[in-house]
Design goal:
Blueprint (H helix, E strand, L loop, with lengths): L10 H24 L3 H31 L7 H27 L9 H18 L10 H25 L6 H35 L1
Helix pairs in contact: 1-2, 1-3, 1-4, 2-3, 3-6, 4-5, 4-6, 5-6
């Protein structure tokens, strides 16, 4: 760990942890979506929207703190990238739920539950990792596992696309379902961006 003679603004750590905890909330709402009926999905979408707004508030708080802090715990660019990538995750998860409701999807294709399970696991790992930014200890396994999960998500996504284009679905349904599974894949990518940013920070601080 690099020795510093100057004090550092420590509230960033708490704000990153709060943002990651909110993502766990979003991933649980995604899990709820799987077995929900149409009426329940509308209510889940409302709760997801509220969680997404909470995520926006957390991101804005980080940016405000960044702009008003003379000394930061690590590079300003990395703080901005980490906050933005965490915000992207919530945006993608909220978009996926909203699309399911807007398109009035009755049954999601087999394989979507695997996508969501990957996202839920990545959310848990990310929330567990954020407090580690204080010391930069024991974070290697986190970014290795999230990268592995993102590779798994890629494979699931490709299988889902092959399933959607196998001729069993109406063309309009294919367009709707593809948009949903693509957005879930973008959420997995955003988790990897968070992990890569954490790795960059850890390397700089070592």
């Amino acid at each position: 760990m690099r020795f510093r003679l100057t004090p550092r603004e420590t509230s960033f750590y708490d704000m990153f942890s709060a943002s990651a905890d909110n993502i766990v909330t979003g991933s649980k709402l995604l899990m709820e979506l799987l077995g929900a009926d149409s009426a329940s999905r509308v209510e889940i979408a409302e709760r997801m929207r509220a969680a997404e707004h909470a995520g926006d508030d957390a991101t804005h708080a980080i940016f405000h703190q960044l702009n008003s802090s003379f000394i930061t715990p690590f590079d300003r660019e990395d703080i901005y990238n980490l906050a933005s990538s965490l915000d992207d995750i919530m945006d993608f998860m909220e978009e996926a739920v909203d699309l399911v409701v807007l398109y009035q999807i009755e049954e999601l294709p087999k394989g979507v539950e695997q996508q969501i399970e990957v996202l839920a696991r990545a959310a848990e790992l990310t929330a567990e990792a954020m407090p580690g930014l204080r010391t930069m200890d024991n974070l290697t396994e986190y970014w290795i596992e999230v990268n592995r999960l993102e590779n798994q998500a890629d494979q699931i996504h490709r299988k889902l696309l092959a399933h959607l284009f196998n001729g069993k679905y109406d063309a309009m349904d294919v367009l709707k379902l593809k948009q949903i599974v693509d957005v879930l894949e973008e959420a997995a990518d955003a988790f990897e961006h968070v992990a890569n940013t954490v790795e960059t920070i850890a390397v700089k601080e070592s």
